Amino acid sequence: MNDFFVMMLPLLDSTLRVAVPLVLAALAGLFAERSGVVDIGLEGKMLGAAFAAATVAAVTGSVWTGLFAGMAVAIMLALIHGLAGITYNGNQVVSGMALNILVAGLAPVLGNAWFGKGGQTPLLGEGARFAPIILPGAEALRGIPVLGPIYAEIISGHNILVYITAAIVPLTAWVVYRTRFGLRLRAAGENPHALDTAGVSVVWMRYRAMLICGALCGIAGAYLSIAQNAQFIRDMTAGRGYLALAALVFGKWRPLTALYACLLFAFADAAQIRLQGASLPVIGPVPVQLIQALPYILTVLLLAGFVGRAVAPKASGIPFVKDR
Question: How much is the pLDDT for 22?
Fold first, then answer.
């Protein structure tokens, strides 16, 4: 049991680190889709934010400037998606995919033009990335059985964006279910005409949701390039936007259940890193590609067979046309 506990500590620690961008992107999608906007462009907004954050942090040497730059780019992309899907009533799925494709091609091209490193940004120095934070008493309490190692290795030692994400989850649940804004947000996604009859602008409500969506995607993307890593790499989101969208569906568009789904996917991702090179009895060495595909296989299996009937907001993806 003791050996199992020691083995699980780094795995759980990695799970928390890997889960951060998934959780933030899932919450971003929650705000968008609860307002009635299908946002398949989470991947593109995260990737754009990751590139902007790493680029600005590398040039200015300031990690906070990089974070705000990443958020600004993601918000801009969210507003472009809103312009296409809310103002001009375009197909929101097509708009989201267009953003994903645009950013996936544009970011490496700009990176190569500016830095000449094959689409990557330079490695970030100490002040240009978020450093781990050692919480008070972490080392002193390490010797206490069970609780000490949990506090020292799982709770302590993360960068500030991990702790911000931990605070954003209950804040999101409170905003969505306990505030007037949250009530109107859900109404915009369930019955926008009733909301319009009550004198609330559905268009402005959906744009506000997209602003929040962009800000959260900005933090998620910046986390990848200036917190979890120390530079931008081509396609570094690696499908996390789609995984976050799957977690949102699996969690039935609720903050806490979406969090649990993100943690499950993150655990699978953290486990696959440690399973690479593993050898099974009879079968022998397991192909690395199969191990790397584990999180995505798990996503497909859960969505196909174990989720049940997930009912999206009724007006999700339906353009709002004001009654005359």
Answer: 96
Residue 174: give the domain boundaries: 2-306
Q: Are 189 and 30 in contact (CB under 8 A)?
A: no
Question: What total number of domains does the chain contain?
Answer: 1
34 vs 209: CA distance, rounded Å: 8
CATH of the domain at 187: 1.10.3470
> 157-213 pLDDT, tens per residue?
999 999 999 999 999 999 999 999 999 999 999 999 999 999 999 999 999 999 999
- The residue assigned the tokens 């977690």 is 247
User: How far is Cα 64 from Cα 85, in angstroms, rounded to an integer?
Assistant: 31
Cα separation of 114 and 231, whole Å? 14
Query: Has residue 159 been placed in a domain?
Result: yes
Of 95, 102, 49, nearest in space to 72 by CA: 49
Average pLDDT across the chain, whole number: 89
Q: Residue 280: which H helix or E strand, with range?
A: strand 279-280
Instruction: Identify whether 235 is part of a domain.
Output: yes
